[in-house]
Amino acid sequence: MPSALAVTPGRMMCRVVLGVTLCALTALLTPAQVVAQQPAPSAPATGQATPPGQGTRGVGAGQGDPFAGQPRIRALIVSGGCCHDYTNQDKLVMEIIRKVLPVDWTVVYQGGTSRESKIPLYADANWIKGFDIVFHNECFGFVDDVEYIRRITSAHRSAAVPAVFTHCSLHSYRNVKIDDWRELLGVMSHRHTTAHPIAVTWTAKADPLVSGLKEGWTTPTDELYVIEKTWPNTKVLATAVSPEEGHAVYPVVWTNDYYGARVFGTSLGHQESWNDPVFQDLLTRGFKWALKKELSAPSAAGK
Fold first, then answer.
1. Measured CA distances, 104 to 54, 61, 287 (Å)
2. What is the pLDDT of residues 58-93, one digit of tens each?
3. Cα–Cα distance for residue pair 36/28, rounded to 1 Å
4. Contact (Cβ atoms closer than 8 angstroms) between residue 102 and residue 72
5. Distance between CA 76 and CA 43 in Å, rounded?
6. Do residues 165 and 263 lie in contact, with contact meaning Cβ atoms separated by under 8 Å?
7. Domain limits at 286?
């Protein structure tokens, strides 16, 4: 069995690398079709991603392509681990970004649902080679292998490849003693509040990344991450008040400069928030900002 499966959500195509944990990966072919593929125990998937630049294109490729003649963006999504529906989250990311940018996607889903998985992707020190941006959507909170974690952060640092971080990626590697992952993120968190709708305050309204987004936005039921520390290059764009912790105020959206690599982060993104139009606009803008692309006005639903 090959290690990569080509799937087509609607007309969009992407590569999904199956996990070595032999978990079944569900890939949505169309809104009405679902298929699952599981590697046989006798022939586990290798966990190696197809080289960037050889991937399939998002909607719009070929005849009638609105991005014809524009350079393609080679984007990597890393997902897997505890607590969330990463297959559908990854699909949604590709669907919303494909509307505004010409992206060739590589999706690496590895590690099953365990918090303790060390995924094959990061075994290679050059795992980031060839990519223009990485969307980190993994959740491996109990991994504390220093050498392994530094292979992740060093790749971003040496190549200055920008990154987007959402929700549970903040709690990946949270038990390790070193701060390398947290410095890349720009924040440190080890826990979150009970789930509740979160009232978001835009604290940097003049910043183009959040300018014009809906005032008084309250998320669907989400989790407010307790941010214990921010790094000097972190710029907080939005905050929320905890219903616990003595009504402490915590960042929920920020940017970071990691040795020249642009980083966009949000602690939001627990389940229902992914379908919220403001959250989708926020992800789109964060992705474009990280790539130094021009930021467009929010969608009508996101205002």
1. 8, 10, 14
2. 333 334 678 888 999 999 999 998 887 889 999 999
3. 9
4. yes
5. 25
6. yes
7. 4-302
If one counts the domains in the chain, the total is: 1
Q: How far is the C-alpha of 56 from the C-alpha of 14, rounded, in Å?
A: 6
Q: Fill in the DSSP letter of residue 248.
A: -
Is 134 within 8 Å of 49 (Cβ atoms)? no
Query: What's the residue count for the chain?
Result: 303
Residue 37's CB is within 10 A of a number of other CB atoms, namely 15
Beta bridge partners of 139: 81
Tokens 């499966």, located at residue: 5
| Helix, strand and coil in the chain, % to nearest 5 | 20, 30, 50
276: domain CATH number is 3.40.50.880
Q: How far is CA 272 from CA 6, 79, 194, 197, 277, in A?
A: 27, 18, 15, 10, 11
Q: What is the pLDDT of residues 27-51, one digit of tens each?
A: 332 222 222 222 222 222 333 444 4
